[in-house]
Amino acid sequence: MNASTPILHQFAISPFSEKLRLVFGFKRLRWAAVEVPIVMPKPDVVALTGGYRKTPILQLGADVYCDTALAARVLERLQPTPTLYPASAPLAEQLAQWADSTFFWSVTPWAAQPAAAAFTLGTAEPSELKAFAVDRAALTAGMKHLNVAESRIQIQRHCAAFERQLADGRDYLFGAEASIADFSVMHGLWFIRRAKPVAGILEPYAALGRWLDRMARFGHGERVDITSAEAVATAASATTHAAASVLPGQKLEAGLRVTVAATDYGTDPVTGALVGLDDEEIVVRRTDERAGTVHVHFPRAGFQVRQVKE
Ligand SMILES: N[C@@H](CCC(=O)N[C@@H](CS)C(=O)NCC(=O)O)C(=O)O
């Protein structure tokens, strides 16, 4: 790996990580994988982000990108072809946003039900299953979850709609070209497919099954595995950051001390100096004793930036 190799901090059973692993495959990129802990604590993740703990995160030197919606945009900049945002699919990002939220939370109760949890989580060890349940309950405190019966109904509604969308023989959800929407819908269905004892829920949808196989064939690109210590050292030794600026009219000025936090779940705030703000992205600068000066990037969609009142 060299200094410009993108690093994905991810773990094997994570659907959102699978979304980006497939994007690496789609774009035939070479990337480095760091395996992060499935539950807190995650000291090396937090050294890089300053508090954000969701998975995955994308690192390019001393720039750290939170949330897969933004990370996908960054991978598009690195490797524009094939595009994730074809002109033929103007609603691709909107459908992806729905799939990453409403659809994802519709499938998780089904995939994590007791009959399948050992497959979904890759362990049958009661203490690990318990630790996972406790960690995720804290992560999503305040959210209302569907029960398994409600999850089944929603999965069936959504899969029937995907099946109708694909019924004319198109290769991808919006037609002949794949888009970010395909990758966002894919990772939730990948989660169900891995949950073998309950994966039969997908069987009635033949065109969707062929689409899933087609998506899986993108593979994961060229992956090398590195340790989190190597990734932190890569950040510490980087001397430049991606260009960032605060656009006029954004009501906050460069250099202000701000917090940035997700608005849905996993809302741990990141505090730093504002260095970038436009309609798409928020960038803060913070210094960590091991990772050095890091720029942490968030999408505007799904995040709030607020000035810290001293
Ligand atoms: N909107 C986020 C969602 C990411 C997400 O919820 N990831 C799950 C894992 S698939 C997570 O963070 N779980 C808790 C954790 O890994 O600490 C994104 O697109 O990156």
Main traits of this protein?
2 domains, alpha/beta, Glutathione S-transferase Yfyf (Class Pi), Chain A, domain 2, 10 helices, binds glutathione, 310 residues, ten-stranded mixed beta sheet, 10 strands, globular, Glutaredoxin
Written overview of the protein:
This protein is of the alpha/beta class and 310 residues long. It has two domains: 7-82 and 223-307, Glutaredoxin (3-Layer(aba) Sandwich); 92-216, Glutathione S-transferase Yfyf (Class Pi), Chain A, domain 2 (Up-down Bundle). The chain is 40% helix and 18% strand. It contains ten helices and ten strands. Strands 5-2-1-3-4-9-8-7-6-10 form a ten-stranded mixed β-sheet, sandwiched between helices. Strand 6 (257-262) and strand 7 (270-277) form a beta hairpin. Helix 1 packs parallel to helix 3 (68-78) and helix 7 packs across helix 9 (206-216). The protein is globular. The model has no long low-confidence stretch (mean pLDDT 97). Glutathione is lined by residues 14-16, 53-55, 67-69, 100, 139, 266. Glutathione binds next to helix 1 and helix 3.
Largest sheet: 10 strands, mixed
In percent, how helical is the residue content? 40-55%
The count of domains is 2
Bound molecules: glutathione
SS strand fraction = 15-25%
Radius of gyration: 19 Å
Structural class: alpha/beta
- Spatially, the strands of the biggest sheet line up as 5-2-1-3-4-9-8-7-6-10
Give the helix tally. 10
CATH C-level class of the largest domain is Alpha Beta
Topology-level CATH name of the largest domain: Glutaredoxin
Q: Give the averaged pLDDT, no decimals.
A: 97
SSE order = EHEHEEHHHHHHHEHEEEEE
Low-confidence stretches: none
Distance between the termini: 42 Å
Let me know the number of strands: 10
Shape: globular
CATH architecture level-2 label of the largest domain: 3-Layer(aba) Sandwich
